[in-house]
Design goal:
The complex is a heterodimer. Chain A is an all-beta fold. Chain A has no helices and 9 strands. The chains are: A mainly beta, B mainly beta. Chains A and B meet through β3 and β4 of A and β4, β5, β9 and β10 of B.
């Protein structure tokens, strides 16, 4: 699996958009970008994934650069319940997840 | 919507004892993954099963074994427990979708404490 690089921490104001960057410069053509989050000691929660097109669902939007070497997860209106560790993972479909050091996002009132 | 069920949620064992953790995947999911998360660490992949066959193996100690049964539930068996086995154990399930996904959905975890 390609290695990813994320900032260790990020603060965000409640109600504002949170933009979480991820670098994955060694991503292969058949690898997807997945985002998961883990709220304190709970099971990791799937957020969104994409291959090369931008994706949006009820939780977030995923913007992938044209060269696929980086991506941004956007939480459109952060709430206090979005405080969590966010993991950006690149993997081929139907494969194990390799969790690296994610971004600890703290949403402040 | 149905989620992944894990039991027990909490387990306390003594050193050298055995433990069995159970995982019930989301209905119609054919793949189960096990992950271990030590205190202050990120989840680490242990083992996975697809259609009742082992599909991949990570850093799983030889003292641990697992299997997936005909009803797709899975059990992780841990023997000769050590203090270092104290961790959260997560099970995740997914449905193989060819080349287009297979996102994993995680259970709430089993917190194992070895004393």
């Amino acid at each position: 699996d390609a290695k990813t690089t994320q900032p260790p921490s990020m603060d965000c104001a409640e109600g504002r958009a949170a933009n979480l960057p991820c670098n994955h410069s060694t991503i292969s053509g058949n690898e997807y970008v997945y985002w998961y989050r883990q709220i304190h000691s709970q099971g990791p929660q799937y957020i969104i994934h994409g291959l090369k097109n931008n994706e949006t669902n009820e939780m977030a939007s995923l913007i992938i650069t044209e060269d696929r070497k980086s991506s941004t997860l956007i939480l459109p209106h952060a709430t206090l319940r979005d405080t969590a560790v966010y993991y950006c993972i690149v993997r081929v479909a139907n494969y194990k997840l390799s969790f690296g050091a994610g971004t600890t996002v703290t949403v402040r009132a | 919507a149905a989620g992944v069920i894990q039991s027990p949620r909490h387990l306390i064992k003594e050193k050298r004892e055995t433990a069995t953790l159970k995982c019930y995947p989301i209905p119609r999911h054919d793949t189960v993954y096990w992950y271990q998360q030590g205190p202050g660490q990120d989840p680490q992949f242990l083992i996975s099963f697809y259609e009742k066959m082992q599909s991949d193996k990570g850093s799983i100690p030889d003292r641990f074994s697992a299997q997936q049964f005909s009803d797709y539930h899975s059990e992780l068996n841990m023997s000769s427990l050590e203090l270092g086995d104290s961790a959260l154990y997560f099970c995740a399930s997914s449905r193989v979708k060819g080349l287009a996904g297979g996102e994993q959905y995680f259970g709430p975890g089993t917190r194992l404490t070895v004393t």
